[in-house]
C-alpha cells in the first residue's frame, strides 16, 4: 500500500503561543479540482479546525516522514455540504492551498489526485460487489506526542484497512452515496478500538494481480473512491466505517463548490 502514502495526510493545529498544544483534526487526501489544489477531508474536520482557533494558529500536514506548516493566509476552507446528521452527513470539505512556495514544497514530496473525472467508469471498475478497497487514516490511539521540556515530537501512524465490498455495503440516501467498510475484530486482528482521527481519510479502490515473475500479489490500477467520516458501534465483533462513495466524492459535493465560485 506504500504507493498511496504520498496522497494521504494527517491534519493538526498548533498554536505558536503554546507550541506544545498539538490538536489532531483528522485525515485527508491531496487532490486537485478545477485547477485548485488542496486537501479533501470530512466537513466535521473543517469545523474542528475552526473551533478554538486563535490568531496565528498553524495547520500542520503530517505527510510521509515529515510535517509541513500551512499558515492561515495561504489556505481557504470550502464547506462543500450542509450536514444534517452525524451518521449520514453529508460530510465533505475542502482545504484549498494557494499557489505559493509552501505548495511547491508539498508537491516535491507528494502526489495530488485529480478529481476532474467522470465517476461512471470508476463506479464500473471499483464499485461492484467483490471489489477490493483500502481505507487510509491516522487513528489517534496509534499516535502520540512526546514532550521534552519546551519541545515535542509527534509520532503518527497511518493505518491501511482493507475491505471487500459485500452486498448492501453501498447505499444511497437523499441523493448521496455511501460505502460501509466492514471491520472484523477477531482474536488475532489488531484493529484499533476506535477509528477516531481517521475521519477525512481516503478510501481507495484497488486492482490486485499476481506477478508472473515471483507469483506475489501486486497492486495494479487504483483510484480514490471515497472519504471516511463515521464509525458505527462495535456489535458481535464487527463495526463499519462509513464514507462517502464515488458519486458524492467526484460530483455531488462539488456542485455547491462551483456555485460558490460564481
Can you offer a commentary on this structure?
The chain is of the alpha+beta class and 262 residues long. It has one domain: Thrombin, subunit H, CATH 2.40.10. It is built from 4 helices and 17 strands. The protein has helices at 43-50, 101-109, 119-126, 246-261; strands at 8-15, 18-33, 36-41, 58-63, 66-70, 75-79, 93-97, 113-114, 132-137, 144-148, 151-155, 159-164, 170-173, 176-184, 202-210, 217-231, 238-244. Strands 1, 2, 3, 4, 5, 6, 7 and 8 form an 8-stranded mixed sheet that branches. Helix 3 packs antiparallel against helix 4 (246-261). It is globular. The relative contact order is 0.20.
Q: Secondary structure elements and their pairing?
A:
Layout: E1 8-15, E2 18-33, E3 36-41, H1 43-50, E4 58-63, E5 66-70, E6 75-79, E7 93-97, H2 101-109, E8 113-114, H3 119-126, E9 132-137, E10 144-148, E11 151-155, E12 159-164, E13 170-173, E14 176-184, E15 202-210, E16 217-231, E17 238-244, H4 246-261
Parallel strand pairs: 2-8
Antiparallel strand pairs: 1-2, 1-4, 2-3, 3-7, 4-5, 6-7, 9-12, 9-15, 10-11, 13-14, 14-17, 15-16, 16-17
Amino acid at each position: 500500500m506504500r504507493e498511496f502514502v504520498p496522497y494521504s495526510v494527517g491534519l493538526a493545529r498548533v498554536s505558536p503561543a503554546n507550541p506544545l498544544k498539538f490538536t489532531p483534526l483528522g485525515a485527508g487526501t491531496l487532490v486537485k479540482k478545477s485547477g485548485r489544489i488542496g486537501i479533501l477531508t470530512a466537513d466535521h474536520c473543517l469545523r474542528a479546525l475552526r473551533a478554538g482557533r486563535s490568531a496565528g494558529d498553524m495547520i500542520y500536514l503530517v505527510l510521509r516522514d515529515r510535517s509541513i506548516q500551512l499558515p492561515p493566509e495561504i489556505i481557504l476552507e470550502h464547506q462543500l455540504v450542509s450536514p444534517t446528521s452525524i451518521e449520514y452527513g453529508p460530510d465533505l470539505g475542502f482545504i484549498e492551498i494557494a499557489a505559493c512556495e509552501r505548495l511547491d514544497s508539498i508537491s516535491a514530496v507528494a502526489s495530488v489526485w485529480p478529481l476532474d473525472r467522470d465517476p461512471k467508469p470508476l463506479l464500473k471498475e471499483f464499485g461492484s460487489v467483490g471489489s477490493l478497497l483500502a481505507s487510509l487514516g491516522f487513528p489517534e490511539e496509534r499516535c502520540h506526542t512526546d514532550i521534552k521540556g519546551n519541545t515535542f515530537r509527534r509520532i503518527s501512524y497511518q493505518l491501511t484497512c482493507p475491505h471487500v465490498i459485500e452486498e448492501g455495503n453501498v447505499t444511497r440516501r437523499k441523493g448521496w452515496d455511501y460505502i460501509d467498510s466492514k471491520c472484523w475484530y477477531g482474536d488475532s486482528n489488531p484493529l484499533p478500538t476506535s477509528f477516531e482521527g481517521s475521519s477525512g481519510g481516503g478510501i481507495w479502490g484497488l486492482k490486485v494481480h499476481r506477478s508472473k515473475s515471483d507469483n506475489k500479489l501486486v497492486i495494479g490500477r487504483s483510484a480514490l473512491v471515497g472519504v471516511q467520516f463515521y464509525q458505527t458501534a462495535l456489535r458481535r465483533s464487527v463495526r463499519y466505517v462509513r464514507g462517502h462513495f464515488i458519486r458524492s466524492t467526484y460530483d455531488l459535493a462539488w456542485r455547491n463548490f462551483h456555485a460558490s465560485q460564481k
